[in-house]
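Structure (tokenized):
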């Protein structure tokens, strides 16, 4: 199956290590023969809305083709984090909350939010909102707690009215289960947790995505770059969701200067192997004729 879209790409405006220019994003996707692609720089909270402003300004400064779309990738945040930032309750030169407050170990109270609203979507001409879980809320005390924590976040994003695509389901769970977010070393990454995700949770998440008219993202590096057993676990999940009626997007999640072209060719074969066709993929925006 020929891949014709990439709806998850980060430019150098993103608040992390991304370094591609939007001009190169266009050139690289045209070289790959893609019909639709999107810049989706990170927006964790309103603290880094300036990154989206600069990305949008750059986007409007070029005569990009209709197939190049402008979006954002939001993170599921704890509501108390967004409230604290809105109140200015931080030290600008010390406690800079680009990623919220990751060292605060208060218990997860279940209240979640994203750092964008309808006014922002209109103001910045945002065509798609990719919503992802990037870290646990709080510090789960066990593998079971980590899975439950991520499940609740994924379900929140799948039901959120502003999210159009649920990004990389379960990605970074290996860090939460291994307690990487406290220790920050490779010894605290536990990939085997993916084997313990209950089938019931997977099915409920797929049902929630379908019920709310969202799309599920097949994220190239998340599927292809882990241990060998991660790929079939991911693809079997997506195949079950496909059978439910869930539609998908594809995303490279590029942070480098240029895409890993080999991943596209590998993923095309994987999609064929699992019975995916163009009919299983959709766009989260209305395409102009």
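Design, position by position:
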């Amino acid at each position: 199956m020929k891949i014709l879209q990439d709806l998850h790409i980060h430019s150098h405006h993103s608040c992390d290590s991304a370094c591609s220019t939007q001009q190169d994003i266009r050139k690289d996707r045209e070289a790959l023969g893609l019909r639709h692609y999107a810049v989706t720089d990170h927006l964790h909270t309103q603290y880094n809305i300036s990154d989206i402003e600069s990305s949008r300004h750059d986007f409007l400064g070029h005569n990009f083709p209709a197939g190049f779309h402008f979006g954002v990738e939001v993170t599921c945040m704890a509501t108390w984090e967004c409230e604290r930032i809105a109140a200015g309750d931080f030290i600008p030169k010390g406690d800079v909350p680009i990623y919220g407050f990751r060292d605060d170990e208060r218990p997860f109270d279940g209240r979640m939010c994203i750092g964008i609203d309808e006014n922002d979507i209109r103001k910045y001409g945002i065509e798609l909102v990719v919503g992802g879980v990037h870290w646990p809320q709080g510090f789960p005390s066990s593998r079971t707690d980590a899975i439950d924590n991520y499940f609740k976040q994924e379900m929140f994003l799948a039901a959120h009215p502003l999210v159009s695509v649920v990004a990389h389901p379960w990605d970074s769970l290996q860090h939460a289960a291994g307690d990487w977010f406290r220790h920050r070393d490779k010894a605290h990454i536990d990939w085997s947790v993916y084997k313990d995700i209950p089938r019931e949770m997977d099915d409920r998440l797929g049902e929630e995505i379908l019920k709310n008219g969202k799309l599920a993202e097949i994220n190239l590096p998340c599927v292809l770059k882990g241990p060998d057993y991660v790929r079939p676990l991911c693809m079997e999940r997506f195949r079950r969701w496909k059978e439910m009626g869930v539609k998908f997007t594809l995303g490279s999640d590029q942070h480098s200067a240029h895409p890993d072209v080999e991943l596209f060719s590998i993923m095309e074969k994987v999609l064929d192997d699992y019975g995916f066709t163009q009919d299983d993929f959709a766009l989260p925006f209305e395409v102009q004729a």
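Reviewer-requested clarification: The longest helix spans residues 143-159. The domain at 5-280 is CATH 3.20.20.140 (TIM Barrel).
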